[in-house]
Amino acid sequence: MPLPLPPSGATRVGWWHRHWRWAMPLAVLAVLLAVAAMVWFALAQWSRWSRASEPYQEAMRRARCSTELVAVLGEPIQDGFLPSGSMERTAGGGGYSQFAVSLSGPRGEAELFLEAHREGGQWDYPLLYAITGQDEAVDLTALDDAEAAQVCALQECREQGHCPLPGGRWGG
Predict the structure, then answer these.
(1) In 10 A of CB 22, how many CB atoms?
(2) Surface-to-core class of residue 78, CB atoms within 10 Å of its CB (0-12 exposed, 13-18 middle, 19+ buried)
(3) HSE toward the beta carbon, residue 14, CA cutoff 13 A
(4) Do the Cβ atoms of 116 and 123 come closer than 8 Å?
(5) Which pTM was predicted?
(6) Which end of the chain is more exposed for a tag (fewer CB within 10 A), N or C?
(7) Preceding peptide of 126 cis, ω within 30°
(8) Distances from the Cα of 30 to the Cαs of 24, 26, 27, 40, in angstroms?
(9) What is the pLDDT of residues 12-52, one digit of tens each?
């Protein structure tokens, strides 16, 4: 059976007028989700980019090789999702970097602070330390950064049998 025709003087009501009660909240929700997705994407890209930087990688290597920090935090030492800080490269191979990174291990947490300067293609780390949960500072700088990049104090300690292996066993 066909639908009856509307009276000749009646105006036809539009879609928006009929459905605005559920369409408006849905539209606002869609916009909020789009903005949240863009913010999450930007933060994820910043995290990926900063974690891939040479100063960040060297700071994490030194943290994981520090016998003092491993003794306080345990192994494995994990870094947080979102480091805060900045990194800048200049013409001629120079640059500057500073980060604050949350660290955690099975036995505790710490905050890693890094400041690095790059001149002539070489990074120098005048400020590199971790503050543990007991407010103890662990210095991760070295007198010779080029030599420190080649050495892992924790590995040497384990090879000599003075430090426990990751499973808690002692090497020898």
Answers:
(1) 8
(2) middle
(3) 3
(4) yes
(5) 0.72
(6) N
(7) no
(8) 10, 6, 5, 15
(9) 788 888 888 999 999 999 999 999 999 999 999 988 888 88
